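Exercise 7. Predict the joint structure of the components listed below.
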Amino acid sequence: MKGNQAIAAGLVVLAVVFAGLAVFFFATRTGFLASSVARHYKHGILFTALTVLALVAANFARNRPAVT
Amino acid sequence: MLGVGLIFFLAALQGATELFPVSSLGHAVVVPALLRFSFRQSDPAFVPVLTVLHLGTAAALVVLYRAQWARIVSGFVRAAVRGRVTGDDERLAMMLVVGTIPAGLIGFFLESPLKTLFANPRLSAAFLVVNGGILLAAEHVRRRDERRLHTSRADRRHPPGDPQYAPVEQLTLRSALIVGLCQVGALLPGISRSGVTMAAGLVAGLRHEEAARFSFLLATPIILAAGLLEVPDLGPERPTAAIAAGAAALAGVIAYASARFLLRYLRVGRLDPFAFYCGALGAAGLILIP
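Solution:
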């Protein structure tokens, strides 16, 4: 197998979760993971950045030789 | 509300201390209390003003390493698309990403409890003493390592010192992560971001000047992001645009000069003087601040 596909798939799933959280924080007023109930744009930006990083990490895992 | 004079005083203080391993935040809390300035660190305008000043410092760092940042950003994009790290710039970009994540996440989610610490000058003074201890401990470890390397060498032509240590590009990703984890400590007022990252860089085997370079590069994204994200939340206590821009520019110019000075100093100098300074200021704060 060329890369570590299981880790890559896990990181893509994580990226999807982060993307969902980013949309959630941009779109709704919430107190989840925050100190007050409001629309938390900063949380949205953070989770957008984490989405990108998870996808980059998945791309690295895809190209990395699997340890046997 | 903070007066214009006080804002410019804080700008000069922040610019002069942000990149030295002496904790700008600790200074911003302890020095006005020592000088008996008539404002409270719990003033709602205090943190917004500091945030704006940090943008000046971040701009100074971007200007200082502008050519390197251009290579780092393009290196990150190349490595991210290809899924493989090949050159030094790509490697450095990945080290900066890995090193930034811990402090970024913890600072983000613990922002509110950490801000309450700013209102306690005596606690900041105590952390300044701890910061001095960290710098001294790092130099102690480095000196011991230099002596060990010197005595174990077959040829003794090379005196103990920095040249035998590595540049930033030879740091491992694991070491970069450890340096990044140390940066988390700098969320406490009195613990210096550049101090703990330089100390960790020295222990990881970097030359002094290279430890400072990695510290400055690592500080840039987090200072810039924290500053930019805080600006929309400045609220009614924010300084006027002209005052904010002037103060940030002053902080930036002083930070640029202090970074150039520190990089030159660390070609031959060590962190001990900064350690003793932090210890003395922290002790003065503990004794004199009621």
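Discussion. The interface with chain A takes residues 80-84, 97, 101, 104-105, 108-109, 112, 229, 232-233 of chain B (CB under 8 Å).
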